[in-house]
Amino acid sequence: xxxxxxxxxxxxxxxxxxxxxxxxxxxxxxxxxxxxxxxxxxxxxxxxxxxxxxxxxxxxxxxxxxxxxxxxxxxxxxxxxxxxxxxxxxxxxxxxxxxxxxxxxxxxxxxxxxxxxxxxxxxxxxxxxxxxxxxxxxxxxxxxxxxxxxxxxxxxxxxxxxxxxxxxxxxxxxxxxxxxxxxxxxxxxxxxxxxxxxxxxxxxxxxxxxxxxxxxxxxxxxxxxxxxxxxxxxxxxxxxxxxxxxxxxxxxxxxxxxxxxxxxxxxxxxxxxxxxxxxxxxxxxxxxxxxxxxxxxxxxxxxxxxxxxxxxxxxxxxxxxxxxxxxxxxxxxxxxxxxxxxxxxxxxxxxxxxxxxxxxxxxxxxxxxxxxxxxxxxxxxxxxxxxxxxxxxxxxxxxxxxxxxxxxxxxxxxxxxxxxxxxxxxxxxxxx
Length: 432
Description:
The chain has helices spanning 5-15, 31-42, 66-79, 111-115, 132-136, 150-156, 160-172, 178-194, 198-207, 213-231, 234-250, 269-281, 296-299, 319-326, 334-352, 393-400, and strands spanning 21-24, 46-50, 94-99, 121-127, 141-144, 285-291, 308-316, 358-361, 367-368, 370-374, 377-383, 407-411, 416-418, 421-425. The protein is an alpha/beta fold. A hairpin with a 2-residue loop joins strand 10 and strand 11 (377-383). Helix 9 (198-207) packs antiparallel against helix 10, helix 11 crosses helix 12 and helix 14 (319-326) packs antiparallel against helix 15. The radius of gyration is 23 Å and the shape is globular. It starts with a helix and ends in a 7-residue tail after the last strand.
């Protein structure tokens, strides 16, 4: 299954030989598969160890003598299925993959010796946890792997040419032919229900339909919760499970702001804040913070993240898992379910494109689903479930902020640009 992150891995291989790579991402997003596929495709020799499943691997890196490390690792590489026996490959770098580095190993700084060894090593660490420590010391070249976005889904399902077509029309704002537009909306419905977790996408492809997708999502969710409980004490594990179990219900309310009282009566941030943090740190939840109304003007003069409020929305990392979860819920307002799904899809796609997620409200007069900060201006994004896109929200926002040069409306409407508003079909969000 082709992942666009392979291009970033190749860039690291070619330009960052002396810096270890850290591949972060939620469990089930395909980190291990991607790393080993990369090793098989671009290295003559590689070594893979899993520090969590095979704790004995820690012994390979014990002690001060780096030469012993190298000797131990080379012994493994000789039996590794991708190892090359050609003499000309002996000077080529060896890719050393350490999986599930869910902490900061005491030997991490010593890895520089492996990079300078003969033959040299290139080091890739894989983790399912987010840590500011990894970013602050600038030791790693950091990449994050997300569930497949819609473009990758098109590639995986043999519809690659649609992706390039979408990008061309996104840039030109010219409408697609109606028949192509309808085909893409149908394909998007498949994606909405399948999501981007590789196991679910593979099931969709192999079964040529969505027959067993919900079961794949259930397995992924159960594995995640089991892992969360095994890594935390009983009380914290229970709280994480409780937060996870109501994430879907939070997203089908008319006001999708996260409310602790939906967990249980009397629940507060003090009780459950750490559980929410764990879910975001393990990449299964995406937090979207509220921008202070009075900070609209100043947000363009400083970093937008310094003007956020404690209120937030909590999206799921994969819209397909949300869809399967919502199938079990009775709701009197199907339009709320649809809105929650589409908004979650937009959130995960924008987050995957590297945007911090921010939303805005004006004393209940107007709501903007997402606020992007680009080129010293604010770009508001409204999400609609159909092709009717009229609303007063943007006019209210523009009256309060002079830094808005344009806006984006996401809906089932075809591409168009009118009145400083860029109309983007829901299937083209990956272009933003």
